[in-house]
Design goal:
Layout lengths: L5 E5 L6 H12 L2 E4 H14 L7 H7 L5 E6 L2 E6 L2 E2 L7 H10 L3 H16 L3 E5 L2 H5 L5 E6 L2 H14 L6 H17 L12 E4 L5 H18 L1
Parallel strand pairs: 1-6, 1-7, 2-6, 7-8
Antiparallel strand pairs: 3-4, 4-5
Helix pairs in contact: 1-9, 2-4, 4-8, 7-8
Length: about 230
């Protein structure tokens, strides 16, 4: 039986995980899985139900009503809510707060675990998130922990949101990002920390192209070694 290759890319918000993963997907021909979109979608569902992001029991109670799936569209996985692909509505700062809070709940993480792992069983994949190398794919072929300075990450996310027509400010984005970083690192379940065997890549001073080049070298070295 063929052994599929799995590339885990972890790191804080705004470090460029998704941009890097999408580029690597096209170059390597691997399926790209955006796990953050799954938590954002659950957060969006909860928010639309009028449930507080701090109402743990209310969030858990919603899980039985959530119809969330993933389907392959070329080399990318699309997240569907009730059969409809989600879009920029899950990328707002408010949804970021909801996503961070729902991701701390063990029942939510268990709800999504098999969905994420099953894709890796039948595809060469690149999966990005915050606990891919530590929890979702602990046996990933290559693990990269991508990081950048706080200001660099906030500026990137602000420009991204502005390009999508989302009204916010750099100050609001940076404040939200710092809160989420602390929240994700301190949660008891699957904290957003590097796997012990992850290769660290700081791209604060790197262009997207240079980041891809550096990651490709890490992947080449990692896959050759194994």
């Amino acid at each position: 039986m063929r052994k599929y290759v799995s590339i885990a890319i972890d790191g804080p918000s705004g470090s460029g995980k998704s941009t890097l993963a999408k580029s690597l997907s096209k170059i390597l021909g691997y399926v790209y899985v955006d796990t953050g979109a799954l938590y954002r979608t659950i957060g969006y569902f909860v928010k639309e139900r009028g449930i507080s992001c701090e109402d743990k029991d209310g969030i858990i109670g919603c899980l039985k009503d959530i119809n969330i799936t993933m389907e392959m569209r070329g080399l990318q996985s699309a997240v569907l809510l009730d059969g409809n692909a989600v879009g920029d509505e899950i990328r707002t700062p408010e949804c970021s707060v909801y996503a961070s809070n729902v991701s701390k709940i063990p029942e939510v993480r268990a709800f999504l675990l098999d969905l994420q792992r099953n894709i890796a069983k039948t595809n060469d994949i690149i999966m990005d998130g915050r606990d891919i190398g530590t929890v979702i794919l602990p046996d990933a072929t290559v693990k990269i922990f991508l990081s950048a300075s706080d200001h660099t990450r906030a500026k990137r996310r602000f420009e991204e949101l502005k390009a999508k027509g989302v009204e916010t400010t750099l100050e609001e984005v940076e404040k939200d990002m710092q809160w989420r970083d602390a929240n994700d690192k301190q949660r008891e379940i699957a904290p957003a920390i590097p796997a012990e065997d992850a290769i660290h890549l700081d791209n604060s001073e790197l262009s997207p192209e240079d980041t891809v080049e550096a990651a490709l070298k890490i992947i080449k070295d990692g896959t050759t070694a194994k």
